[in-house]
Amino acid sequence: xxxxxxxxxxxxxxxxxxxxxxxxxxxxxxxxxxxxxxxxxxxxxxxxxxxxxxxxxxxxxxxxxxxxxxxxxxxxxxxxxxxxxxxxxxxxxxxxxxxxxxxxxxxxxxxxxxxxxxxxxxxxxxxxxxxxxxxxxxxxxxxxxxxxxxxxxxxxxxxxxxxxxxxxxxxxxxxxxxxxxxxxxxxxxxxxxxxxxxxxxxxxxxxxxxxxxxxxxxxxxxxxxxxxxxxxxxxxxxxxxxxxxxxxxxxxxxxxxxxxxxxxxxxxxxxxxxxxxxxxxxxxxxxxxxxxxxxxxxxxxxxxxxxxxxxxxxxxxxxxxxxxxxxxxxxxxxxxxxx
Length: 339
Ligand SMILES: [Zn+2]
Ligand SMILES: [Zn+2]
Description:
alpha/beta; Rossmann fold; seven-stranded mixed beta sheet
């Protein structure tokens, strides 16, 4: 393995990345004085920081989830390609293509640029701005699906599978498990793009996040709450719920549901079986193996720092391709939550 030396001004700690000259953390897993937050998923956006620096969408999501006051003077919102300077470090936010408001953080200091991706993907997503390639010296990349076995099929094929399944059994409904932030809204938007214009039925736990997306200009079409709908009205229809609701009592109010789940992990049969998923849909908000390796090649950094997933697989690829790399072992990253 090519050993990379740690640059002096950014320090990987188990609880996050610490930017020393700015005295600030990126996605810390514990409450800190100053946090730059890449996106709203719970394993990146923790509650309890004194000051949060993030995109307006991420602040709005944190406000919804934790009651963080997005407008408070101790927090600061930055649009894409905007940013701030602190302690001689210039911070800039760039789209990561992961969920609404998700950002890569570019930092310029002492003639060196470091980019922290947070979570990202490269394929089109109607609910968020596309990933931007930011050339840099050190590229801190996620690796949720950092093994060659993870190759996500085209999203349109998975959505077509879902629509075909619901049409095949008009007496039943399809219940799709999808994480409340990002995946649920993306599945809805992808269905709309595929021409599904019937109302889509949602679990109450998805209501406020869907409304937040709509407020930020993402069109989701007509959504109806399962709790306010007669069972028969959902025959031949698509219902979305958080994964935790798939196999619980709540689903008894649905007409003979076929259980589906939208996740990159659905590529693994064992995972689908564990959740008793009959219709696995491989729809992910994370880069797959090909996207990860293509992105490292395209960004072409002097060093890659790999975190958040299958570090070893991507590390090995870097080694085989004569690219300097190291694995960061950050704690508190919940890969299950939002893949
Ligand atoms: Zn995420
Ligand atoms: Zn994550």
